């Protein structure tokens, strides 16, 4: 048995690939849970600090824009420095963001926390996605699409339950997340390195899209449907809890958390069901599901019928999840191992633009037209995008 030299730190033994894969999945879930956890708390923040629906969407979107910047700057960094170092850096920043949330006593603190969280999540998103594909390309594609959905559901539903049933929810939510992140950071020290570091780290941080030529046409074809799905998610995570109160007539925080969880859990279930079906066929079917689900949801909003509202969300969530899974599976063969992090970061840039910009526009519209009218107009635009994707998929077939 070898003994470390005197004074030299012992290097922790690396994890087995299966344990490493499980830890990376858990990291994705925790990062996305942390990103959705503030959503059920927004109503409490508004009551405590008194701000408008527009400022609420600005708080929400500050996270998304910071995440976009981080994806553009750090998206390909792990291809050069190695996966483990970038994962650990993202965890340190995320822990800092949770501390800011925990100490927040004004909108300024909230925006600062969301910005730092966006940087941390953006740094982690592409490297965690690439690591899953490195460790197991087949299962990695599935969990790249499945884990974020599960994470958002855990964060929204868990936070809303704590808000409704636990004491001091504006602190307890973040204390739970802080414990989970610190434990995962300790375990992440033992993650195996899956790529060989190579020169060019500084050059890779110049903001630009990292889309290989072979994948560019495919990315463009995926955009209408991907935009519709992510724009729906952005609306639900920002204004969804308020909309749930309007439609159900109940002011319970759990209603908003349940709405978000319904969307993303049905998305996760659909991903699992379609994981081995041909991606092109799934894209066509998911476009139809998203359009039909949105139409039913809008009927529920117009009639203020909770059954239609949640029922439509179930169908739309299935369309969103299935389309995202098929998109990721379509992109995997279009990049070499050293191009994967860059391609996935670019794909997430486009996804999070759809996640944030429409939500800000919706926040602006709520001030002039009201939440119900804004929701109907917003939803009709998404229906049109889904139908456009469905027609395009039929023509390609």
UniProtKB/TrEMBL annotation:
Q: What residue ranges are annotated as transmembrane?
A: 52-74, 86-104, 110-133, 145-166, 172-189, 218-239, 251-274, 281-301, 307-328, 349-369, 375-393
| Cellular component terms per the entry's GO annotation | plasma membrane
A Gene Ontology molecular function term for this protein is:
transmembrane transporter activity
Q: What topology in the membrane does the UniProt record assign?
A: Multi-pass membrane protein
Tell me which UniProt keywords the record has, alphabetically.
Answer: Cell membrane, Membrane, Transmembrane, Transmembrane helix, Transport
SUPFAM superfamilies per record = MFS general substrate transporter
Q: Superkingdom of this entry's organism?
A: Bacteria
Q: Name one Pfam family in it.
A: MFS_1
Please state where this protein is localized.
Cell membrane
Instruction: Answer whether the UniProt record assigns the keyword Signal to this protein.
Output: no
Q: Does the keyword Membrane apply?
A: yes
Q: Where is the Major facilitator superfamily (MFS) profile domain?
A: 19-397
The UniProt entry, under InterPro entries, shows: MFS, MFS_dom, MFS_trans_sf, MFS_Transporters
This chain's protein is named Putative MFS family arabinose efflux permease
Organism equals Pseudacidovorax intermedius
């Amino acid at each position: 048995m070898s003994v470390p030299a005197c004074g030299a730190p012992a290097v922790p033994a690396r994890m087995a690939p299966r344990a490493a894969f499980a830890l990376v999945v858990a990291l994705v879930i925790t990062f996305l849970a942390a990103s959705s956890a503030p959503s059920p708390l927004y109503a409490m923040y508004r009551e405590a600090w008194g701000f408008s629906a527009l400022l609420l969407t600005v708080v929400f979107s500050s996270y998304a824009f910071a995440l976009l910047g981080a994806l553009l700057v750090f998206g390909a960094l792990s291809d050069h420095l190695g996966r483990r170092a970038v994962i650990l850096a993202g965890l340190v920043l995320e822990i800092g963001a949770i501390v800011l949330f925990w100490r927040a006593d004004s909108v300024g603190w909230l925006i600062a926390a969301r910005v730092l969280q966006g940087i941390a999540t953006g740094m982690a998103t592409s490297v965690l996605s690439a690591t899953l594909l490195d460790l197991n390309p087949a299962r990695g594609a599935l969990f790249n699409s499945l884990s974020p959905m599960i994470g958002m559901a855990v964060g929204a539903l868990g936070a809303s339950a704590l808000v409704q049933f636990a004491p001091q929810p504006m602190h307890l939510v973040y204390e739970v997340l802080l414990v989970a992140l610190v434990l995962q950071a300790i375990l992440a020290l033992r993650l195996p390195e899956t790529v060989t570091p190579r020169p060019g780290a500084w050059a890779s941080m110049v903001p630009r899209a990292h889309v290989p030529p072979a994948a560019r046409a495919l990315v463009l074809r995926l955009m209408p449907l991907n935009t519709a799905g992510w724009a729906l998610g952005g609306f639900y995570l920002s204004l969804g809890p308020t909309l749930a109160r309007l439609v159900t007539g109940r002011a319970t925080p759990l209603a908003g958390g349940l709405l978000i969880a319904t969307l993303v859990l049905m998305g996760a279930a659909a991903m699992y069901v379609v994981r081995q079906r041909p991606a092109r066929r799934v894209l066509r079917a998911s476009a139809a599901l998203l359009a039909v689900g949105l139409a039913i949801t809008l009927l529920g909003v117009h009639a203020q019928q909770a059954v239609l509202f949640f029922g439509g969300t179930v169908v739309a969530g299935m369309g969103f999840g299935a389309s995202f899974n098929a998109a990721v599976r379509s992109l995997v063969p279009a990049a070499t191992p050293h191009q994967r992090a860059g391609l996935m970061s670019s794909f997430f840039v486009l996804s999070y633009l759809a996640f944030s910009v429409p939500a800000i526009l919706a926040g602006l519209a709520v001030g002039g037209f009201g939440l119900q009218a804004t929701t109907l107009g917003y939803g009709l635009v998404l229906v049109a995008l889904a139908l456009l994707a469905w027609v395009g998929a039929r023509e390609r077939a």
